[in-house]
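Tutorial, part two.
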Amino acid sequence: MKTVASKIGLFVVALLLSLHVQAQEFQGQATYISKSTLDLGNWGKRLSEAQKKQVMANLKNRLEKTYILNFNKEASFFKEADKLDAMSGATDSWGKNFAAGDQYKNVKTNTQIQDQEFYGKRFLVKDSLQPIEWIMGTETKQIGNYTCFKATASIPTDELTWYSFSWDKLRSSNATETADGETTAPEIPMTDVEAWYTPQIPVAHGPSEFWGLPGLILEVSAGDTTMLCSKLVINPEEDLKIEAPDKGKETTKKEYQETLISKMTEFRNNRMGRGRG
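Running the prediction step on this input gives:
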């Protein structure tokens, strides 16, 4: 009996080890096509339809991008696929300063590590994952071979675009003073998010800042941008790179945004100073 029990015990241990190895070895790669719309505003009203089409064609490389998400059970690595400017044959150097860098997320440790570059200086942004209070829906749709469920959320816009900068963002973040001299906190702009995830791939990963659903996010729309998974490979033949960036000046998301604001304000003041001179 002891021999039988010992064999059963060894079998259970071997099975658990096998399951552990399988869990560790599970990997996947999702390719996302990102498309953004652009509101030309009052300036666009002065353009003919042909001129509008030409403007949109010139900006296509900025409005349509391809991203790759490598993932396992616990971590993911998200980056933009290399793409050259269709007009100049070079990368968009100005836009690169305010674009999201290579991103590592770990849902087990609740950490995000992102490689950012701003005017030639490299930063290693370490912080916690963006908290998202998802509202789970029952609506479903098919994306490729996967049945997806809908989830929605509302997230502070600044939290989704912490790596970017705009003067509108700076103005809206400043407190205002009322007629009676009291200061009021600025209104927090929110972005409505719609995500479609599949429980058939039970990982809590997704592109960009999005995560935390009981299945891989295959499509997500936030503001004027939609990311849709166009290709999905589970357990590819070659091991995928899912490692955190480790070079650059360590900082947090909040500190990085403060650096952008400080430097851009400095650039503006220097330019105004030269103009007055």
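The radius of gyration is 23 Å. In part three we will examine how such features are distributed along the chain.
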